[in-house]
Amino acid sequence: MREIGIIMNGVSGRMGYRQHLVRSILAIRDAGGVELPDGSKVTVRPLLVGRSEAKLAEIAAEHGIADYTTDLDAALADPQWEIYADFLVTKARATALRKAIAAGKAIYTEKPTAESVEEALELARLAQEAGVKTGVVHDKLYLPGLQKLKRLIDSGFFGRVLSVRGEFGYWVFEGDWQPAQRPSWNYRAEDGGGIIVDMFPHWNYVLENLFGEVKSVYSQASIHIADRWDEKGERYDATAEDAAYGIFELEGDIVAQINSSWTTRVNRDELVEFHVDGTHGSAVVGLFGAKIQPRNATPKPVWNPDLEDTHDYDEDWQQVPTNDVFLNGFRQQWEEYLTSYVLGTDYPFDLLAGARGVQLAEAGLESSRTGAKVVLPELKLA
Ligand SMILES: NC(=O)c1ccc[n+]([C@@H]2O[C@H](COP(=O)([O-])OP(=O)(O)OC[C@H]3O[C@@H](n4cnc5c(N)ncnc54)[C@H](O)[C@@H]3O)[C@@H](O)[C@H]2O)c1
After folding, report:
1. Cβ(87) to ligand 1 under 6 A?
2. Residue limits of the Gfo/Idh/MocA-like oxidoreductase N-terminal domain (predicted)?
3. Residues 132 and 101 sit within 8 Å (Cβ to Cβ)
4. Which of 8, 157, 210, 348 allows an S-S link to 152, with CB 3.0 to 4.6 Å?
């Protein structure tokens, strides 16, 4: 059985450890590999890379992993490792990806792929010139709720889609009287933080893969909470926005509005929800759930401020059943990427797709700075 050596850089981090190492690569290893269309299997061998040898040794011992190192250059020079996977803080990513591409490794990386669209595009070009396969995390597309939404779209349920309203967020504690549940760099612009850089790359691939390419963005970014406390309990100035209110024009005259916030208290069924209105029906989907209202079952409200409305609008929605077994989304995407890598097939979620995500984030920040709507030019490699 073919074994694919994967350099995993940043496995001590939140995403690197939980989603990529434990839930994806080790789950694949422990399941005996990924099954290819012809019934054969390929398996994976991780090499843990990081800055702290002690941390790596601890993770390796806990999970029965033979290989770890603090020497990234040596790992990149060793041909037994075919894929370089990156889960570092955003700021450290581009430098590491550049090195890995130069070493001829295939790339699999977290988003955002870089801090500027120029750099993201340069990485995509370098990878194309080097002829290496690239993959960028598109995990939200694999959420059960969004897979149900995809099925609704593909079945023609909506008729013509008119608009999408997204609500994402929850309260992230300031860190003084309760520890914050996200890393402090998320709130410092100088360290690659900010909810736009974090979330707009997700919104870009969600919108372009489900509804249509994003043509323009208007956004308002806010630092609602300026005083925060870091992992050591020390106060710092938040210099990156903790909320962003965006309007996105999509292909086909679809309007998407998405609020992203770490400063809101949840009053919805899930931490993210999308409400989609179409001529023939509407849907509200979250991480797991999805409910629909076809036009044949749409009530006919009449606005009357003098009369209390006793209609129960929640009752007008019907749950979409869970007819599939959904794998962890990160693992599902890893399996597809590995299959595509081995078979040499085209892989759509590549560094160019990643660059479009960075482009949307950059345009969102520009819009907020200037107060103007920003039109997105098509990104091309050549
Ligand atoms: N796909 C998603 O849903 C999702 C969710 C959260 C974060 N992310 C992305 O994942 C990446 C990591 O985020 P996280 O929340 O796991 O962060 P984290 O702070 O928990 O982990 C960051 C990792 O980078 C390492 N690191 C930090 N500074 C470094 C440096 N200067 N040089 C080399 N290594 C360094 C740390 O040791 C750690 O292993 C970010 O790019 C973030 O945007 C993606």
Report:
1. yes
2. 48-136
3. yes
4. 157
Residue with CA at minimum distance from ligand 1 atom 15: 14
Label each residue of 296-348 as H, E or C.
Answer: HHCCCCCCCCCCCCCCCHHHHCEECCCCCCCCCHHHHHHHHHHHHHHHCCCCC
Architecture in CATH of 2-139+329-349: 3-Layer(aba) Sandwich (3.40)
Determine if ligand 1 sits within 6 Å of the CB of residue 19: no
* Model confidence pTM above 0.90: yes
Spell out the domain ranges in the chain: 2-139+329-349, 140-325+361-369
Class (C level, CATH) for 140-325+361-369: alpha beta
Tell me, in angstroms, the distance from the centre of ligand 1 to residue 16's CA: 7
Summarised one tens digit per residue, pLDDT across range 40-97 is 999 999 999 999 999 999 999 999 999 999 999 999 999 999 999 999 998 999 999 9
Residue 93: phi and psi, rounded to 5, are -70, -50
